[in-house]
Amino acid sequence: MELFELTRPELEEAVAAIGMKPFRGRQIFRWLYQELATDISMMTDISKSGREELAQRFTVRPLTAPEVFTSADGTEKLRFTLDDGAIIEAVIIPEKGRVTLCVSTQVGCPLGCLFCRTGSLGFSRDLTVREIVGQHWAAQKRLAEAGKRVTNIVFMGMGEPLLNLASTVKSARIMMDDLGFNLSNRRVTISTVGIPDKLDELGGQVSVNLALSLHAVTDEKRRAIMPATKNWPLKELLAALRRFPLPPRKKILIEYVLLRGVNDSPAEARQLVKIARSLNAKINLIPFNTFDGAPYEPSIAAAIQDFQQAIWDAGLTVIIRKSRGDESLAACGQLGYVPDTGDLEEDD
Ligand code: SAH
Ligand code: SF4
């Protein structure tokens, strides 16, 4: 059994099943995530014979060290090749007073949003817990060498987290466990197209921040640019979002990618304001990152300006996401995405 697949309670159960005390599970868990241990033999608060017995039953396999691409702005894209040859990416985004890591949850994505390069690549498979948490582990290992650590996690890389719900939830739990990566739930954000019943399911299991990829203000237009949303009407989606158990005083972040002549009119800005108000949400306007064969173009600067002004005038928080990491193709929609939640989040 692979230890990086297990949450802390699962690990405690697994060691109990071979006749060891559950607290051994807690020790092992701490070694994996706080000490970044790569081998059971390193876990020196367990007797030698105990470690030998554990090594017979369990494996400890961090992901193979990633290839790293660094941008001039300090963004680092980590490219992992998984056991089956699949390639996934995570992005380290250093910001003032924080280091955000953007993680992937699937190889590709089955939802096929037309503005998204990942979507245009199709879907291979879900990531396992080890493969999601392993991105965090590798980033932490890299940062630790420079005396730094991951302070914030965004599930905004390749894939749709709610379509890989079980592994996403377990991974978030490991990231938030005080013997794991020990992040507050206020510093973990799941970005999703918004699948109403899956949002309820997620909310029944964890409380984390949500980012909603809205991108259009009517069902018709959403369906046109995000075909998979045809089964998830806005009305039901908004109701599910209102029920979601966010961490105290946190707001939903609405992501809205501006596509020239498609969704960037003043009337749409006003409608977006209405929706954001009804959710008490913040808005993140995202300049479209184009790619070969993309069916859209970025909005012109004046349209972006007007769109932002309309939201601003309505008194809502709006941020235009800086595109970061372009050079290494780490920017939004270029396989691994670079979200800029930084300016929006109070540090706590
Ligand atoms: N599947 C989830 C999380 C991954 S996508 C979701 O859709 O929310 C992460 C973010 O990048 C989403 O807001 C997505 O809409 C945005 N994005 C995708 N392609 C983009 C592009 N070409 N330019 C800018 N943002 C893009
Ligand atoms: Fe999938 Fe998100 Fe890309 Fe849509 S935007 S195809 S949901 S990764």
Description of the molecule:
The chain is α/β, with parallel strands linked by helices and 348 residues long. It folds into two domains: 3-57, DNA polymerase, domain 1 (Orthogonal Bundle); 67-347, Alpha-Beta Barrel (TIM Barrel), CATH 3.20.20. Helices cover 34% and strands 17% of the residues. The chain contains eleven helices and twelve strands. The chain has helices spanning 8-16, 22-33, 48-57, 117-120, 129-144, 165-176, 196-205, 219-225, 234-243, 266-279, 301-313; strands at residues 67-70, 76-81, 87-95, 98-102, 106-108, 123-126, 152-155, 188-192, 209-213, 253-258, 282-287, 318-320. The strands form two sheets. The chain has a ten-stranded mixed beta sheet, covered by helices on one side. It has a two-stranded antiparallel ribbon with strand order 5-6. Helix 1 crosses helix 2 (22-33), helix 5 (129-144) packs parallel to helix 6 and helix 10 crosses helix 11 (301-313). The protein is elongated. The model is unreliable at 336-348 (pLDDT under 50). The protein binds S-adenosyl-L-homocysteine and iron/sulfur cluster. The site of iron/sulfur cluster has 11 residues, from helix 4. Iron/sulfur cluster binds next to helix 4.
